[in-house]
What does this fold into?
Amino acid sequence: MSFQPTAIVGIGQTHHTPRRRDVSFPGLIREAAVRALDDAQMTWSDIDAVVLGKAPDLFEGVMKPELYMSDALGATGKPMFRVHTAGSVGGTTGIVASHHVQAGVHTRVMAVAFEKQSEGNAQFALGSGRGASLGAGGAFAPFIRSYINRSGAPEHIGWQVAVKDRQNALKNEYAHLKIADISIEKVRESPMMWEPIRYLESCPSSDGACAVIFTDEDGGNAAASDGRQPAWVLGTAVRSEPGSFPGRDAVRPQGAIDCAWDLYGQVGITNPREQIDMAELYVPFSWFEPIWLEGHDIAEVGEGWKMVDSGETEIGGAFPVNCSGGVLSSNPIGASGLLRFAEAALQVRGMAGEHQVDGANVALGQAYGANMQYFAMWIVANSLDPFG
Amino acid sequence: MPRLVEHRIQFPYKRSLGPVFGAFMTALVERKILGIRNGNKVLAPPLEWDPQTGEELAPDFVEVGPAGTVTNWTWVPEPTEQHPLDRSFAFACIQLDGAHNSMIHAVDAGTMDAMSAGMRVAPRWRAERIGKINDIECFVPGEDPEIPEGDTGEAPEEPVTMMEYFASITYRNPVSENAERAGAAGKEKRLLGQQCPVCARIYAGGRGYCPIDAVELTPEHDVDLPQRGVVSNYTIVTPVQYPGQTETEAFARVMIRLDGVDVVLGYQGLIDVPVAEIHPGIRVAAMWASEAEREDDGGRSMISGLVGWIPTGEPDDTSPDLLNKVL
It folds into this structure.
């Protein structure tokens, strides 16, 4: 097997907001795509294929929207590929697009992911259109209660993650939720939505899109010699497992562990906490930060919350997590995973602006979906051989 | 032949139209049909981008039609309630005068024999126009649009920017044999499970397969499950109101670990327990619907006929691992 080295040379996203009533949803996606083209110094005709991801079609009530958006994405006459893996879809979309280049099938591929939540209702759609829908928060609350009980984490950990991510969002011009006076007290006093998850420990509903442009080794090197740092995709992994079965570990799913170690093996990582400089993890409810730090063996089992408590996951900490503000600050569901992956790439390109981590050479992007059963991860770096 | 059961999903959506479709819909209220200039050609209905190159089109709108020429068509002999007309009609590609492409709309031609490629058609305008494509009720043969009497074609007070859309779809799903057996067991107030012959895991309801070993589970794998258990975990949901949400007050969903088997039933309802009193350890028993209360959901729920779980009054189970049982 030989894989072509794959570089990210263009990233674009929309400003994420509760509702974008001024644009059609192809128009919304265009904004992200055009920004990615500008970043890559490419035009529509430079792109060989488009990979599009979004969450369930019930969200906007348009079945198979990719079929009518080829003109919006300059994809007329080109291969157009739809990906759907629930909440992890944005991540999987980036991975599928990268594989088209990695496999040598195409030279320049655009991944696009989006959601326009204002057109429908995610709670309705996630409940398959039935009444008494729990929503994602209701589904995950027992998992979180179990994590808290198993790890013995104090309750302020959830509040602390919520404050950290919202403070990071203040540094991200594209973030949706910007709460300037966010504080532990404010989170603690916000209404209980899905016991034990409070309102301010939950993600918002956003309209938004993200686009990422991949190219081959020559394209990556050309960008680098032009002074435009590419992000090199060093490894990608996806895993899934059944959503429920007797004996399943809901807090530390085997699929998550296998996904991480497949990825670490590809990249040559034996100590993720030391060798990875920052991570964008899929944290739609605050407690998922410690859950994934443990689930991907960045922290020892039962110790993830201590990384939060010590400030290690803050931008200035030893292992910064969700410097963009994360899903807690912007949640256009279909795009949320790709936004994580794109932020990891922005970081190693040194293009993350005010939320840039100093010395971010190797970064992890992660997304999960459905009943904590679909996993997508990648590691990007500012060189093909970051560990020398 | 399996039994078929109907399920319907309905929900209102709000569609934002953007500057190009918005202008098109706004013009329909005024009884005008807009195209957009694309080089030396006109696209009607207008598109936001050049379909060939993907380049943005300047909002250079051109009024087209109202009459046009049918370029192709198909006949709909038996319309359903979702079709635009309640009688036989044609769906046709119509190239409006002044446009270089065609749009699809309905033609009310009476009989299929009246349809032909090259025929001329004009719009029949609806009296109450709101800025939707069916402001044109359909097209009719001839050169002259049909306009309701006294219709002045006034512009709307505000430009049309949004489209409300009520989605309704009805599925006819076959009920699996396993779901039928689970439902029949429920009628006898029995909780049916199935045990995988490979891993010995037990699944509740008529799942029909073991997701770990990928083997089919059939009647020989049926087992009766205990109808008592313990609340192992829970959440209390403050419901978000949307059309179709049936809950208005905070409600609980609990995990029930069945006695003697490693089966946890997720997101169950508790009966006669105020949400504030819910905690892990409550001993509960299954409560079944009476024959009169029972709704046939066609096997849609895993345990059909189970109303919920009611406290047995026994002392709490205080096992420390209870809280960690979620699945």
In short: The mean pLDDT of chain B is 92.
